Amino acid sequence: MKAQKLKLALSLVLIVFGAVSVPFFISDTNTAQPQASGFLIDFGDWNVTWTEMDMQTNQNPFDALSTACKENNFTSSIEDGTVKEINGVSSDGTYSWNLWTISKNSLTWVKESSPQNIDLSKYTIAAWAYTDGSGTPTVAVDNSGRSIYGYPQAQRTVTLAPAITEMIAALRAVETLVGTDMYSTYPASVVAGQNNGTIKILGDYLNPSFEQIVAAAPDMVFCDGSIYTHHIATDKLRNVGINTVLLYWGADVQEIMDNIYIVGVAIGYGMRALEVISTIEHAMDGVTGAISEHVNAQSVRVMLALTPDKSPWVSGSDTYVSDLTSIVNGDNVFSFLSGWSQVNSEQVISQNPSVIILLTTNYMSNQSDYDSMINSLSAEWRTTDAYKNGNIYLVTGAAGNMSTLPGPRFIQLMELTARILNPDIFNDIKMPKYIGDNYEDFLSFTKDLDFKN
Fold it and tell me: Where is the Fe/B12 periplasmic-binding domain (predicted)?
């Protein structure tokens, strides 16, 4: 138990010191491993068709569209240099078909105003996409700027972060796993594979073992873009010919969903990825719909902390925990900070949260440990409305571990948070002040997710 608590406590440290330590950059990968060449038609809502083609001979965007439509038996209509319709989906007053590109060494889609002047061979990827005025196409490159399309069906995968391992499980692809980092301890099927030797442990989260990864003979490796050493590992693995995808940080709900989609597409489980995304979106609609029915519901001032220390580490903006809290009627009192930040006791007083949610693994989920935590709080914490009104919640054990991981179970943390912040709306289940390994007992919208493989 002591070793397990140490391991889980370390995972909390990693989200603070890992995610805040990586400067933004695009990996300068120059390998003998070429990127797949092809073109996208994006109908919106994750409905994307990839067509492999030689962009040197399909440099013109309209020629590429014609080739893609012919390959997929789609109709299309072009009038005066403007795409009006693809496969029965027509431009209207809100949505329209436009050419979008991602330049080499970039992560960002750019809408091209003069598609007739574009040479597609100069870009990493391009798409005709159906979007509204503020929309952008579906994610198409990983965090190193490399296309996520065109990889062969994966048979032997390696994941170097717990959240990514959970994505593989949600995709029902645990049977492809041959290696993980040492902190991947969910779901049980992964642990069983680690115990029987079919899944090797290939170093820790911050320092994956290059030699052990290569020895596992994977045909696909997934790295975490929030960790500097994973950027280095991505380049090294690609240089020896191993397909490697560098995922995004998971700093908000959209990035988590993008990462699920990327993993699914890259290993050939794209349809299952869409099922997972649909399941999450349906559950999210249930939770947010219940809140939206109460038009007079007031936002709740909340502090999200990793420790109950006098000067705690708290979530600012740019964390998925803050993002999901805002979605369920929470007002993060430290949203003016970025990422996970340590604040002083005077800031705790001045921000005066109405609710405090402590995300940790340092306590057992029982009344004795909860009372011990409350009794240890500093005088500054005791001035808050959260303390005075008995609104300090301890999320620990398996629930605390889950809260550190920007993976598919974020939706379950979202429901727990919604119930904590809105007890009058979600009054079918009475929330205790401490939630641990039994966290699923306090869920309804997200209780039966099929993410355990």
Answer: 156-425
Query: In Å, what is the CA distance from 53 to each residue of 49, 115, 127, 331, 423?
Result: 13, 18, 13, 48, 54
Same domain flag for 43 and 17: no
* Domain end among 131, 164, 196: 131
Cβ count near 238 (within 10 Å): 22
Per-residue pLDDT of the chain (453 residues; tens, 9 = 90+): 344 444 444 445 555 545 444 554 555 544 445 678 899 999 999 999 999 998 888 899 999 999 999 999 999 999 999 999 999 999 998 999 999 999 998 999 999 999 999 999 999 999 999 999 899 999 999 999 999 999 999 999 999 999 999 999 999 999 999 999 999 999 999 999 999 999 999 999 999 999 999 999 999 999 999 999 999 999 999 999 999 999 999 999 999 999 999 999 999 999 999 999 999 999 999 999 999 998 777 899 999 999 999 999 999 999 999 999 999 999 999 999 999 999 999 999 999 999 999 999 999 999 999 999 999 999 999 999 999 999 999 999 999 999 999 999 999 999 999 999 999 999 999 999 999 999 999 999 999 898 887
105 shares a domain with 180: no
Amino acid found at 327: I
Domain boundaries, position 186 = 6-21+151-268
Q: pTM for the full model? A: 0.93
Do residues 323 and 406 share a domain?
yes
Pairing of strands 76-79, 48-52: unpaired
Q: What is the DSSP string of 213-245?
A: HHHT--SEEEEETTSHHHHHHHHHHHHTT--EE
Check if the beta carbon of residue 411 is closer than 8 Å to that of residue 280: yes
Cα–Cα distance measured from residue 287 to residue 281, given in angstroms and rounded to the nearest whole number: 10
